[in-house]
Specification:
Largest sheet: 4 strands, antiparallel
Strand content: 25-35%
Radius of gyration: 13 Å
Distance between the termini: 22 Å
Number of helices: 2
Mean pLDDT: 92
Number of domains: 1
Order of helices and strands: EHHEEE
Structural class: alpha+beta
Length: 84
């Protein structure tokens, strides 16, 4: 099976919830924002980021308000990609 990916600029605070499913430290508002993001990307089978990348301030992340972000890749099987 072949995979492709999309890259997102995501806040560091969402990584544990997105990758490990652990939202215990998130506010209800942040948890809702993350859930909305995940529903919009339900075709993604796994998430990955480079742990060596340093987070940097980003004014318009893909989730939430301006904050420290990191590039996250969302992988999906090529045959399940959304059709535009």
């Amino acid at each position: 099976m072949m995979f492709d990916y999309y890259e997102y600029r995501l806040p560091v605070w969402c990584l544990s919830g997105l990758i490990n499913g652990d939202v215990s430290g998130l506010s209800e508002e942040d948890e809702d924002a993350l859930m909305t993001f995940e529903v919009g990307n339900e075709f993604v089978t796994h998430w990955e980021y480079d742990s060596e990348e340093e987070a940097s301030f980003y004014a318009y992340p893909d989730i939430g308000l301006a904050t420290d972000c990191i590039t996250v890749r969302g992988y999906f099987p090529i045959e399940s990609a959304p059709h535009n």
